[in-house]
Design a protein that fits this description.
The protein has helices at residues 30-40, 71-82, 124-130, 150-155, 160-170, 208-222, and strands at residues 2-8, 17-24, 45-50, 55-60, 65-66, 89-93, 96-103, 106-112, 117-118, 136-139, 143-146, 179-184, 190-196, 201-204, 226-231, 237-243, 247-252, 254-261. It is of the alpha+beta class and 265 residues long. Strand 1 and strand 2 form a beta hairpin.
């Protein structure tokens, strides 16, 4: 099968979030898909099959299939546009129909908004993992932890064993969740980091899924619908954000790292 690695949400090689993209003619067994994702050992590998007018799209971490992924969708769109697709790309996924449009070198994801709700408990695992007391904690698909400053966010050195304990402490029944940590930005509107050790990803470099919650959260706090965000991982990435009510727009650039072939499937 065709295999590509694309650095998403960046305009430079070795930045942003690398995603694997596999183009298929038919679905192999799920065990094969999971084995390929584990072998690739990227935070996500996307698998696509072309249909009439859209693409089937699935995403796997090294340990499990997930229901929503931004950077691997952006990477998939980059590969397809580079291969000659035009206009709007539509993907059928576990999270419904997702679309990607291209404006010059920027790709824009149209994703569902996932507003957070206040979490009644600030679990001890958060304080243990980040060695700070959160300003507030919220929950949607993922936990969202609000800190006082960008400096505080940059300085955290997570205890991943403590974050793994969050599943038991919060009574969660699956591993497909993460923890978003966020603060107001200095030279941008807001900043974040994302951790999902229960899903096989200790720290994700740049996370589109997290911005489905971050965009409505910060739109309300800042009183604006168009924002610029940065994810402050070691690789780092920039996202161009728009709150659209029930949907969010997440824009970013991408660059190619690798083109090859996987002898499996």
């Amino acid at each position: 099968m065709q295999y590509h690695v694309i650095d998403a949400f960046t305009d430079k090689l070795f930045g942003g979030n690398p995603a694997g993209v596999c183009l298929l003619d038919a679905w192999p067994d799920d065990e094969v898909l999971q084995s390929i994702a584990a072998e690739n050992n990227l935070s996500e590998t996307a698998f696509l099959i072309k249909r009439d007018g859209f693409y089937d799209l699935r995403w796997f971490t090294p340990t499990l299939e997930i229901d929503l992924c931004g950077h691997a969708t952006l990477a998939s769109a980059f590969v397809l546009f580079e291969g000659g697709e035009r206009d709007v790309l539509k993907f059928k996924t576990m999270s419904g129909i997702l679309s990607v449009t291209r404006e010059d070198d920027l790709l824009y994801l149209d994703f569902p908004a996932l507003p957070v709700k206040p979490c009644p408990v600030i679990y001890q695992s958060f304080e243990d993992a980040f060695d700070v007391i959160p300003t507030a904690v919220y929950k949607a698909l993922d936990f969202l932890v609000l800190l006082e400053s960008e400096e505080q966010l940059r300085g955290i050195e997570p205890d991943f064993a403590a974050l793994r304990r969050l599943k038991t402490e919060a009574g969660l029944d699956d591993d497909a969740f993460g923890t978003i940590v966020t603060a107001r930005g200095g030279d941008c509107d807001f900043v974040s980091r994302y951790f999902a050790p229960n899903g096989g990803v200790d720290e994700d470099p740049v996370t589109g899924r997290a911005h489905c919650s971050l965009i409505p959260f910060w739109s309300e706090k800042l009183g604006k619908t168009v924002m610029t965000a940065r994810q402050l991982s070691k690789r780092g990435g920039t996202l161009f954000c728009e709150y659209r009510g029930e949907r969010v727009g997440i824009g970013g650039r991408a660059v190619r790292y690798l083109r090859g072939e996987i002898a499996a499937g």
